[in-house]
Amino acid sequence: MLVLIATAGSPHLCNMNPTQPNLPLIEPTAPTTVGGCAERLPASCAAIPALSCTRSWLTLSFTPDLGPVAARLLHEHFGCACAALRAPEPALRAVLPVAVAQALASPDPRLETAIAQALAWSQVPGQHLLTLADPRYPPMIAALPDPPPVLYVRGDPEALNRPAIALVGSRNATRDGLDIARSVASAFARTGIVIASGLAAGIDSAAHRGALAAGGLTIGFIGTGADLIYPRAHHALAESVIAQGALVSEFPLGSPAVAHHFPRRNRLIAAQAAAVIVVQAARHSGSLITARLAADLGREVAAFPGSVHSALSRGCHQLIRDGAALVEDAADIAALLESAFARQGWQTKALPVPLSRAPKANLPALSESASRLIAALGWSPVTHDSLLQVSGLPGPQAASALIELELSGLVERLIDGRFQRLGPAT
Ligand SMILES: [Zn+2]
Q1: 346 Cα: distance to centroid of ligand 1 (angstroms)
Q2: pTM: predicted TM-score of the whole model, two decimal places
Q3: N- or C-end of the chain: fewer Cβ atoms within 10 A?
């Protein structure tokens, strides 16, 4: 059984991270002028200290009605925000609507507070502002039609320059779904592939935790300002993600969790990942938005199927109907990644790795009632009544057998009260 390990396109671009010897590091190909202009800028701009460039990008990002598409156009036209801010208004009008060009030509002094706050935030160790002109800005996100002009990054920005896959899914996942997300994330994190997700409850958290447990890297894309964590219960998880990867937001500091932020956050997950894998999703869930955006960007999209009786399978089944790959374990995903990584110019190397398809330990010793009950349980969720009927066990005996099975991790009680057998069907 094979999985891929990601390495850079040529040997001189790839070396080993000294702190994590198994992780191949893709070095940035551009000069590392922190926050500053890239070499393609006009000489007049390149002479400007790096902080002035960052300040200019912040001005641009806070200018009303100047969205990410306009920011990209300014980047293409002027090379850096500092050059755009020094351009005469008629030159700006070549790229922007008149009102926006006017606003940018004489920035509102009231923007100064937010700019100063963001600059101060970025002076704290481990907190970074990556502007579109920064060589550390992730190239997969830069290629979007609407890349954020500024990314707020906590942790190591270098995590954004490594091959990544995304694992996303339901906030109300079953234990089986969480196990799948965790084990797949661990299997790939061990090979040096970064696990991207959205730091939400359920599948997202399980994916981050799987990567962390394997000692790998993970990136959490969030829909609030980088100084806020949502949900609050994920504070400790967020700190671990920062220590072993990065937390990334495009929203200004202090931005609350509002509904329209999440589809925008999802596009960053889709852009950053070579493949988006959905584990359990209801029919109208945000994970489907991420998957569709990923498909539009030409990324691989895969989904784990589930029981036809579970609402959490509907979204995944719809994706598969729409052309997503059906995957059952990490090996299936590894096969998909071969072509996805080749398209990105990443060399891949086959490696044996322990995968979720590996046979699990035998069933623990069970009482006679529990053995009878688990034999009666198929792989679809069943109600308590039909379980009694099929197993032929009297109520009290079935109840204690169910508790035994739940404690052994072999059966889960679903949110709707039905019972679901856990583990691989082998
Ligand atoms: Zn500049």
Answers
A1: 30
A2: 0.77
A3: C
